[in-house]
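user: can you give me the structure for this one chain? tokens are fine.
assistant: on it. calling the predictor now.
[tool input]
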Amino acid sequence: MKHIVTLLAIPLIFLAGCQNQSQNAGTKKPADTPQQQSPEISAPPQNVQNLKTLTADSLKIRWTAYKTTAKVPVSGTFTDFTYRMNAKATDPAALLDKAVVSIKTASVFSGNEARDKILRDAFFQMMMETNKIELRTAGWDKAHGILHSVIRMNNREVPVNFTVKQKDGLLQGDADIDVVKQFKAGRALYNLHTMCEDKHTGKDGVSKTWPDVHLHFDLYYH
């Protein structure tokens, strides 16, 4: 709709294990005695490169939903999720290769306790799969900065494309989903609307709950 990132805010919209590796090759000094010298190791190896892998430090997921005919935004995040990034990435974009995020829907957080309870009970609990949302990446269109992914929610797997931008130490992604057309969550959205009808009424007297959700993630790395 922990920590889409503030799918996939997906809500896209899930443990990353990365480690630094450095491969350094040096010259092995020949032994002092001729009997122990080997011509294969007596000269330095050629074309040696140091490869440094990147580590994902943290992932923030943010979702934005909309109410009233004026489409007033309501934003939040999830506080409990796990993610796994590419542990062998040597460039920032490669961190997102075959990445997996698993989000616990009960951890939805908008800064309003009453609203969060309604989102948990009246929206997510009305879906076929109520406990979690999963996202996995499915490849890159690097020429256009598009990250292909698949989001699983309400027992449906839906392709979702994130537009990704890179800054120093940060990857940011944005995507938009329709929970009714793409995830068949019309019953859940209707139930949410009935619970929030008054609060979703604008100055025109019309109550509106939109099916559109914007997803955003921030992936910090070094």
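assistant: here you go. The chain has one domain: 51-221. Residues 64 and 75 are 4 Å apart (CA to CA).
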